[in-house]
Design a protein that fits this description.
Structural class: alpha/beta
GO cellular component, one term: nucleus
Helix content: 25-40%
CATH class: Alpha Beta
InterPro entries: NTAN1 (IPR026750)
Shape: globular
GO molecular function, one term: protein-N-terminal asparagine amidohydrolase activity
Largest sheet: 8 strands, mixed
Pfam families: N_Asn_amidohyd
Protein name: Protein N-terminal asparagine amidohydrolase
Length: 313
């Protein structure tokens, strides 16, 4: 019994979003406040972007990262966990793979960075796009319950302060249910959460996408805030059968077959998937051609440009 809703310790996690909003209408107000904030287009300077099946954690006095963020969430859930005393904050982009382990790692990393701060508690914020009846594959509502259950069974109190999910983050256009908000950024200095899009999604985008497109289940921690290093890999994936054939298909075919919500994907979705498929085609065995000697790809913030540049470490 460690999940706190509306300030009250819960005996069980909410089974779905409608039950949550019915029993705790305060979440409607906090979601409305977030949605009323104009969406910011965030550039690469000072940004640490978290891709699908990744997490990153940092602290307010990190001189390399000003904003943690993630977007392109349709049936996924963006998780933000912050310790109110230390300001240590995590962002994770979860899609149903590795949920329990990912939640445990997010909590552990934030608690680790909050050591030495006698005051403060863990605050959880969730952002997800599609409401269940608009999601033809029923991924979203099941994912919400899975994440709630994973947090609820942890041995620490966690205060859910925002749930901008389901019907609260859905609008109807042309008879189709669309997300209102696809992504968020977090100001790591203040903890402020705001709607955001990120044209630059960081280095090794195709490589990072290849891992989950080929079935990688782990939620990878991609940042060491003590060293200021963005770390990708090492990991391997199995060669994708028929990748040549996939690349020959039309954009619409790729959209319909490789998206969980093809009607509402952002315009760049197919372009990103094609780049990822091409990467898999060029590197069918990344353990051999990409992560030589089992070494990660490391990136450090360049002081002049403010962007991530590769280094040997």
């Amino acid at each position: 019994m460690v999940l706190v809703l509306s300030g009250v310790l819960q005996e069980e996690a909410p089974p779905d979003t409608r039950t949550l909003f019915h029993n705790h209408p305060v979440y409607k107000d906090s979601a409305s406040q977030l949605l009323a904030i104009p969406t910011k287009v965030v550039g690469p300077v000072g940004l640490l972007y978290v891709q699908q099946r990744e997490l990153a954690v940092t602290i307010p006095h990190d001189k390399n990262v000003n904003i943690l963020g993630s977007d392109d969430a349709t049936t996924c859930i963006i998780v933000v966990l912050r310790h109110s005393g230390s300001g240590a904050v995590a962002v994770a982009h979860l899609d149903g793979a590795g949920t329990d382990e990912g939640v445990m790692n997010v909590i552990h990393r934030v608690q680790e960075l909050a050591l030495g701060y006698p005051e403060g508690h863990l605050e959880l914020q969730l952002i997800r796009s599609l409401v269940v009846f608009s999601d033809s594959h029923n991924y979203s509502e099941g994912l919400f319950h899975s994440i709630m259950h994973s947090f609820h069974k942890q041995l620490v109190e966690i205060d859910l302060t925002l749930a901008c999910v389901g019907e609260l983050n859905t609008t109807i256009r042309g008879g189709i249910h669309w997300p209102i908000l696809y992504g968020v950024g977090v100001n790591v200095k203040t903890g402020e959460l705001f709607p955001a899009t990120f044209p630059d999604k960081g280095p090794d985008q195709a490589l990072r996408g290849a891992r989950h497109l080929t079935g990688g289940q782990q939620i990878l921690d991609v940042y060491d805030c003590q060293l200021g290093l963005l770390r990708i890999g090492p990991f391997n994936y199995d060669p994708l059968r028929g990748v040549d054939l996939w690349l020959e298909q039309t954009d619409d075919f790729i959209l319909q077959h490789l998206s969980t919500a093809p009607e509402v994907e952002p315009p760049h979705f197919v372009m990103q998937v094609r780049a990822t498929l091409k990467y898999i085609q060029d590197h069918p065995f990344p353990a051999v051609t990409v992560f030589r000697d089992n070494r990660p790809h490391y990136y450090r913030r360049d002081e002049n440009s403010g962007t991530w540049v590769p280094i040997r470490y």
